[in-house]
Amino acid sequence: MGDEKDQAVVRAVGDGFFIGVTPSGHAQVLDANSARRAAASPMELLLLALGACTAVDVAEILRKKRERVSSYRVEVRGTRRDEHPRHYVRMEVRHCIRGQNVSPRAVEQAIELSEEKYCSVAATLRPTVEIVSSYEIEEEISGDA
């Protein structure tokens, strides 16, 4: 087991706003007022964390497999409980890939490796959140911009 200790700091700055600073020193504004939506909420950041974690894995695996990917995005949808605490019970992760002759098998393998081996965020969430992944591949025709 690693014994890496990360410390984030979150400060209240007034009127329901908070500034979070990551262990690497990057600041993130958070908004506790869900009606105002002037900045990300903590729960929105969970969706981003999962999407970013798996995107990094899948993009790198496809690059190593020499797949010709010209654009890639991950969409993450979350479903929360109605009762408090309103935690996520399900997250749907959709991998949207565009490229030339991208192998569906390579994409499936990359997603599987991310889900089962590499994505720390998914591993952290999985005990209580059902994570369902899917993908689509859009063929890019030579000369497309």
Question: Could you explain how this protein is built, in words?
Answer:
The structure is a single chain. Helix content is 30%, strand content 36%. It contains 3 helices and 6 strands, in the order βββαββααβ. The protein has helices spanning 42-64, 104-118, 120-125, and strands at residues 9-14, 17-21, 27-31, 68-80, 88-100, 130-139. It has a 3-stranded antiparallel beta sheet with strand order 1-2-3, with no helix packed on it. A 3-stranded mixed beta sheet has the order 4-5-6, with helices on one face. Helix 1 (42-64) crosses helix 2 (104-118). The longest helix is centred in the middle third of the chain and has 23 residues, at 42-64. The radius of gyration is 18 Å and the shape is elongated. The model has no long low-confidence stretch (mean pLDDT 94).
Quick summary:
This protein is an alpha+beta fold. The chain is built from three helices and six strands, in the order E-E-E-H-E-E-H-H-E.
* Rg, alpha carbons: 18 Å
CATH topology tier name of the largest domain: GMP Synthetase, Chain A, domain 3
How many discrete structural domains? Answer: 2
Tell me the number of helical segments per DSSP (H or I, 4 or more residues long): 3
